[in-house]
């Protein structure tokens, strides 16, 4: 009798476990369906923290094997293979892990994930170089938080790069005049005082009438790589500015140039931790005031 009772208990536990795994699979499938079709439900219905990840995941269909589900304590670890076509028209299959547990109402929900976030390659390289990313990738919620923190460091480097360009790349002289038809044209000279070469520098012209009111704006590109110490002469013709009275010429440094500089700077691997330490000190000072 005792052995029969034990067998029944074990059998019941196995059946209950299978039932819970099926429930976890159904929840996972419903979540992936909601990524592409929100008619009946949205992703946050199954994964409350989904929108905090800052992504727009896609799914055409998902493969889930019951044998790939691990039950650990009160959590189901579900390995899924998400199949979809990305914005470039390329078919992709991502291995995604969903961590599923129960809420206070004993209802299953996704409490975390791993593999839904696809990090931008340039940001990943910067994060690795500055020590923000290690060899082991964290779960998605921790990764999303780390990416947000890293964006703060990127912004600081962005400001530093603009400041360096503004200080070292200058218009050394320029002049302009009006044609017989009244159109503005002229020439200028740009000098690169940096210790490295740059390319893609732009310039902007602003034209004003006799009253000092804005008339028109024009732009152009320095069509040459500027090497350290090099001076380069360029010309311009603004057909959209007729009979202006005054003009201003400014240099413009596009984002692709700025991010290229940030990418090519040398890093020690401690920049991210140093940045976070400064942020924590700043936050503590704010709390004390």
Describe this structure in words.
The chain has 289 residues and is an alpha+beta fold. It has 2 domains: 105 residues, Nuclear Transport Factor 2, Chain: A, CATH 3.10.450; 171 residues, Immunoglobulins (Immunoglobulin-like, Sandwich). It contains 5 helices and 10 strands, in the order αββββααββββββαα. A 4-stranded antiparallel beta sheet has the order 1-2-3-4, with helices on one face. The chain has a 3-stranded antiparallel beta sheet with strand order 5-6-9. Strands 8-7-10 form a 3-stranded antiparallel beta sheet, with no helix packed on it. The N and C termini lie far apart (72 Å). About 5% of the residues have low confidence.
Task: Give a quick set of tags describing it.
289 residues, alpha+beta, Nuclear Transport Factor 2, Chain: A, Immunoglobulin-like, 2 domains, 4-stranded antiparallel beta sheet, 3-stranded antiparallel beta sheet, 5 helices, elongated
| Average pLDDT rating | 90
Please identify which CATH superfamily of the largest domain we are dealing with.
Immunoglobulins
Q: Report the CATH C-level class of the largest domain.
A: Mainly Beta
- The count of β-strands is 10
Distance between the ends: 72 Å
User: Can you tell me the number of structural domains?
Assistant: 2
| Main sheet properties | 4 strands, antiparallel
Question: Radius of gyration in whole Å, from Cα?
Answer: 29 Å
| Strand order in space, largest sheet | 1-2-3-4
Fold-level CATH name of the largest domain: Immunoglobulin-like
> What is the molecular shape?
elongated
